[in-house]
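Hey, can you fold this one?
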Amino acid sequence: MIAHNSEGNFDVTALLAMAQNWSGLEGMDLAKDVTREAQGDWIGGAWRLGHGYEEAGDDSRPHVIAIDYGAKHNIFRNLVKAGAKVTVVPAKTSLEQVLALKPDGVFLSNGPGDPAATGEYAVPVIAGLLECDMPLFGICLGHQMLALAAGAKTVKMHQGHRGANHPVQRLTGDQAGLVEITSMNHGFAVDASSLPDNIEETHRSLFDGSNCGISIKGKRAFGVQYHPEASPGPMDSFYLFEKFVGGLR
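Sure. Predicted structure:
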């Protein structure tokens, strides 16, 4: 509990009771409180010294629909930097509404709260996109709900990951074994022991061994638990945006 009073007068007993009676994050859908209310085209890419924000490009770029569960704007800038044209839609946008926008791929954003709670309305949409063989890329909450849609489970962590110095090891591909320094801010995780045969684990935390990345076998769909747009490496993880957008061309 954090409280402020300009005169320094605090009811410590009441504040303590508020902290003790907090229900916790399990079962809480917070994405509905932070998502945007209306669909809109994203304008602007990455910022460069002396140049400002990059132009978003023309209609010849692959069209990415970004579902906003509480997204960080720098994710959209990195999608533009990687070569995409981006349209952002609210968290509760239906499968039919997403497909009506004729996307080349769909991005599943980060956000707060319990992935199972937000997943009550988001997972059926994601599962439908998987059925349509739509290319998908999820970050943090989006990664967790992609895993749920493919048959895995998520768990509340005893101690979440917070900070910009988390080492994550790649488990697959030509650079298996390589370690990225990543930024994380999450209290839920994909349960690696619950992964069905159709999900491949691609990244793992070197701090506690928890899952940090998946791909869906036979689909162009993958996700990571960490935040590549936060650039703690600073560019260790930008390849994920290039992989996603490059696969849409």
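The domain at 36-246 is CATH 3.40.50.880 (Rossmann fold). Let me know if you want another pass with a different chain boundary.
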